[in-house]
């Protein structure tokens, strides 16, 4: 082996150390090496970003579409061919939407086909309901105060749709002799009148087909109508039991007075005792007393005959 001096060995050692230091310095300046831990963390962040990007539109779709409440219509069930929904639309049974139960498509709302708008009577049940639902024709606050039946204990309608269905289905003012319709327009939605009366034009329209006859002194309406080959129509007395109507058919020289009696509406004859108000027209304040067979020896009755 050749001989090497100690100084030479020392120089070589220092060169080796210096070379190692320079290598470390170069490595420290070079990009850091990605370790497995850093790789896992980076992958997790990318996964989270992907999830957030996907979930945002899905949640928006659920809020905008899937979670909305859908309105469900109520409909009539009486007709064989037509159906009216509570939006005031009329269609055939095949045109009902299976989900909403409303008439499909854009249709005329509050249609009054086949209706007499003066008498508020129609020849079709469904169009009667549709026409009745029009707020400009039926006042909701008045309709909801109408009793479902005559007894005092009877309840009232809970909605305008219930009123229109019930009123169009059965209306005593559209029948005569209790078992026959007065005319083909027998589905009526008018709010029942009282002694304070409806308008004169409306009352006249609802008396269409009725023969108004003034009886003889002391004669009942049954007798008055029978003498002309007709019958008394009791459910029309409510329309006659008003001053405006009586003044149109009778003289009423002594005024129009509220009274109580089964012979009313009537006019007191001129030669009646003074305390009976001769010449005055009388309407009864107790509508339950209205009848066809009432009479009084000093009055002439106003009778509805058909």
Can you put this structure into words, describing what you see?
This protein has 306 residues and is of the alpha+beta class. It contains nine helices and twelve strands. It has helices at residues 6-29, 36-66, 125-132, 140-143, 160-169, 200-206, 221-226, 237-240, 243-249; strands at residues 82-84, 90-92, 115-116, 121-122, 175-176, 180-181, 187-188, 211-214, 256-259, 266-268, 281-284, 299-305. Strands 8-12-10-11-9 form a five-stranded mixed β-sheet. α3 (125-132) packs antiparallel against α5 (160-169). The protein is elongated, with a radius of gyration of 45 Å. The model is unreliable at 23-30, 58-67 and 194-198 (pLDDT under 50).
Secondary structure elements and their pairing?
Elements: H1 6-29, H2 36-66, E1 82-84, E2 90-92, E3 115-116, E4 121-122, H3 125-132, H4 140-143, H5 160-169, E5 175-176, E6 180-181, E7 187-188, H6 200-206, E8 211-214, H7 221-226, H8 237-240, H9 243-249, E9 256-259, E10 266-268, E11 281-284, E12 299-305
Parallel strand pairs: 9-11
Antiparallel strand pairs: 1-2, 3-4, 4-7, 5-6, 8-12, 10-11, 10-12
Biggest beta-sheet profile? 5 strands, mixed
Q: Helices and strands: which structural class?
A: alpha+beta
Query: How much of the polypeptide forms β-strand, as a percent range?
Result: 5-15%
End-to-end C-alpha gap: 152 Å
- The helix/strand order is HHEEEEHHHEEEHEHHHEEEE
The residue ranges in which pLDDT falls below 50 over 5 or more consecutive positions are: 23-30, 58-67, 194-198
The tally of strands reads: 12
- Spatial strand arrangement across the major sheet: 8-12-10-11-9
Shape assignment: elongated
